[in-house]
Amino acid sequence: MKGKTLTGYSGKYQCTGSWMWSFYTKKSNIASITVLDKPRATLTAGTTIIPVGGSVTLTCSVQSSDGWKYEWFRRTQRTSEVQIRDQQNRDIRVSQGGIYRCRGTRGNPVYYTDKSYEVTIEITFSNKVVVKQQPNWPQIFRGETITLTCEVQEGGETTEWEYEWRGPRTPTQWTHNNDVTFVVSESSSGDYMCKSRRRDDSYSSTEWSEAFTLSVSTDQPKAQITSHMRDIPVGGSVTLNCSVNASSSSSGWKYYWYRDEKSSEALTTQDAVFHSNGQISVSQEGLYRCRGGRGNSVYYTEDSQSVRIDKKAAPEPESSSFLTPLIVGLVCGVLLILLLLLLLCRFKQSKDSFFVRTRSTNQSSAMNHMIKDEAQHSRHASTVQGDACVYESIKDLHDTQNDDSVLYAQVSHDRAKTKKDNDDSLLYAQVYYTKAKPKRHKGKPAPAAADETVYSEVKSQTALD
């Protein structure tokens, strides 16, 4: 009995034989036939990832039956399925990525099983893949915008790739974009990984990158403003500093300055002098505040507390309090020295004058006697002629041999004065003592000449009588 078997033909079969022209018959043994559905081949793989430079083993089998040979097939997402030639064994080794299937054959005519289910084999490239964050700030705050980039290293720039992501806020399908941009929130915290594959070979990819951990800070940071001075000196300015001290790892901030509470426009270079990032100098009084911002889609901190700057006279520097006493002390010292020198000169002049007056007094005593005699001799002439002047030459008693010493006396008789005083017996004499220049002796310095005036009271003869 020939024919295709169907499941309905399953059962026990027996046949009977007889002789011709005879009633003798004989039955055969009973044969049990179980007709099964068309079998499906089973494909198994030791691993579905081909290591760099390696291969994997694929096995095809038909359950609970023998005598099979096998056919192998491969396709990709861009190519149709084709049979792999010269491969009829149960086990094969492949080094190319793709989608594989197999089926069993036996008999003549050939009977085919159903093809196995598909198994995807991928090749791992040696290129290393890393996840990078831009901007590369150590601390990220809720509401900031960041970009994660999947970067293929070690020659990957010469190949067109597509990328797959794993992470809380990343796509799960393959994409041609190697980056993903999003606004972070509490749910964005977690580990992010990526891998890439060639666009012309969907079954050849890199390994997954190392996990990149993203931590999101939920509290909005606040700027801080500081100033060493609150009063603007005359013709000067005050320096203000702004910073964001959310943590030691906070960075990348630019600073915006404002004056007065209701002002929403940031200061410009016309309003202040901008120094290094976060520092300005202002010369206008007012209420100042600042805040930080960073990123292309600028993320702002909270405003700092306000600081009032007033325009007043600048306090004296600390150095002036030290220099003022020093200068005053030096001036007083110089004045004291000058005063001492002046007193010394006056003392020397007073000493010299004392010696001169002593000498003149001695000489005037002798001259008084001589003037007395002359006055007696001329009293009668004075009485007749009224007010008269008498000039006499008087020699120095101490110098009887030299005629160089001469005294000149002018004796005046003032009637008006004597009448007023009721005493006409008084004469006043003004004596000029001229010391002639002595002759110089060899080897001895000449003494200095001195002109001196001596006043003497002279009485007339009548008074003396």
TrEMBL record:
One of its GO terms (molecular function) is transmembrane signaling receptor activity. The chain crosses the membrane at residues 322-345. PROSITE patterns: IG_LIKE. GO terms for cellular component: external side of plasma membrane. Residues 39-118, 143-215, 221-306 form the Ig-like domain. Pfam families: Ig_2 (PF13895). Residues 437-465 are annotated as: Disordered. InterPro entries: Ig-like_dom, Ig-like_dom_sf, Ig-like_fold, Ig_Fc_receptor, Ig_sub. It comes from the Eukaryota. Gene3D superfamilies: Immunoglobulins (2.60.40.10). Keywords: Disulfide bond, Membrane, Signal, Transmembrane, Transmembrane helix. SUPFAM superfamilies: Immunoglobulin. SMART domains: IG. One of its GO terms (biological process) is cell surface receptor signaling pathway. This is Ig-like domain-containing protein.
